[in-house]
Amino acid sequence: MAKIKKLSQKKVSTVFELFAVLIGSVFGFVFTIVFAEQLQMANFKRNQMSPSSSGAIFHEVVTTEADKLTKEVRNLCWILTQPKSHYRKAVHVKNTWGKRCDKLIFMSTENDTSLGAVALDTPEGRENLWGKTKAAFRYVYEHHLEEYDWFLKADDDTYTIIENLRYMLSNYDPKFPIYFGSRLRLFYKEGILGGGSGYVLSREATRKFVEEALPNKSICKQSNQGLEDVEIAGCLLKSGVLIGDSRDSLERGRFFPLGPHIHIRGGIPQWYKKNAFYKPYAGFNDCSESAIAFHYVAPELMYWYDFLLYFVRAFGVQRQQPFPAELPPGVRGLPREVSASSWQGAKRGSTWLGASPRAVPGGKPRRPPTLTSVDPVRASLVSSRLPPRHWAGRNTPPL
Ligand SMILES: *[C@@H]1O[C@H](CO)[C@@H](O)[C@H](O)[C@H]1NC(C)=O
Ligand SMILES: *[C@@H]1O[C@H](CO)[C@@H](O)[C@H](O)[C@H]1NC(C)=O
Questions:
Q1: Domains, the chain, ranges and CATH?
Q2: Shortest CA distance to 323 belongs to which of 368, 269, 377?
Q3: Quick one: average pLDDT of 220-241?
Q4: Rounded distance from Cα 219 to ligand 2 centre (Å)
Q5: Fringe-like glycosyltransferase domain location, by residue (predicted)?
Q6: 365 pLDDT above the threshold of 70
Q7: What's the pTM value of the predicted model, to 2 decimals?
């Protein structure tokens, strides 16, 4: 009897042991997965993804046309960052869109040669963004002004499609004082360009800003404090730098102050609806295919965007060709060679940037193709969504 009891006790304990092992391994398995994922995330955040390894993932094929623009439109990108974001945010810009700039510099308050960060001689902190921006432009002016045509300022949570930036800028002469970005109806009649999605200054605008505007206290605020995009807008305006129209030939935006998901789904916030300089569109058809910049893009998403833009393709789907025209209607490009007289013409012209169209050597001036000539089906689709013409007219600042 006692023997049987002992045996059954043994059986029970064996079953119990087995059960415990089972529970233990299931728990361990789950634990490992969760833990590994967290570890991976931490590694990701600490940049275990090296620039070279991510560079090897994507098979970017640059067409000869885009390649030509790379030589014609040389751009320097500088990214406003801070030491604590070097390996949380900045490095992911470097791994993704930043590598497509002709030159990439991170403006910080600590040197980091492996990242490419420069220590500016300004106090750190959000309240000193204006001081940092001034120092950053002084830095690019002193070290690189003649090497590049355009100088893009972006944040470490901006995502930029550099090929499209070059495409738009190829219409403008960098010797012309102009800058482009996401235009907001704030502070000045001409508006300002919001800092988050970045703005790009021509070489001449950069020169005017640093040489003429910055030292002059009746043009630029001399202290470090202030909102960088508002302050620079005032400086540039007062020193005769124009705000360019960065929309495409269908008046669709290309610099966006929010992430693409927000602009696409249409839930744009009230502040943007109220302050957008041009009509704030929402939805698929209202975002330009030649979109340039988005803001509030988390590091993980930058890899997603790179993946979708430069790697994944849908079998059998041909994208619209040719690429949509670069300029909005009524806005013409500037002659590649800007003379004093064409600059005066630009100021007096009937369209707000009414300079003569870009001269094509030995040919007729190039006119942007209309959508109807590019893609009639799409034209009818989009025209029903375009705002009435008076909207664009009403927003046109007199020059
Ligand atoms: C950063 O590097 C530059 C150039 O090497 C040097 O002149 C400067 O003193 C350094 N600044 C800091 C804060 O380390
Ligand atoms: C500073 O700017 C004002 C206003 O544009 C101008 O009248 C003045 O001559 C400038 N001062 C210097 C030193 O350039």
A1: 51-310 (3.90.550), 340-394 (no CATH)
A2: 368
A3: 94
A4: 7
A5: 81-211
A6: no
A7: 0.74
**For the stretch 59-76, what's the b/e string if a residue is b when 16 or more beta carbons lie within 10 angstroms of its beta carbon?**
eeeeeeebeebeeebbbb
Relative to the alpha carbon of 234, which ligand is closest?
Answer: 2
pLDDT digit string, tens, across residues 129-180: 999 999 999 999 999 999 999 999 999 999 999 999 999 998 888 999 999 9
* The ligand 2 atom nearest the CA atom of 212: 14
Nearest ligand to the C-alpha of residue 216?
Answer: 2
Ligand 2 atom index nearest CA of 217: 1
- Ligand 1 contacts (CB < 6 A) are 111, 119
What distance in angstroms lies between residue 210's CA and the mean position of ligand 2's atoms? 14
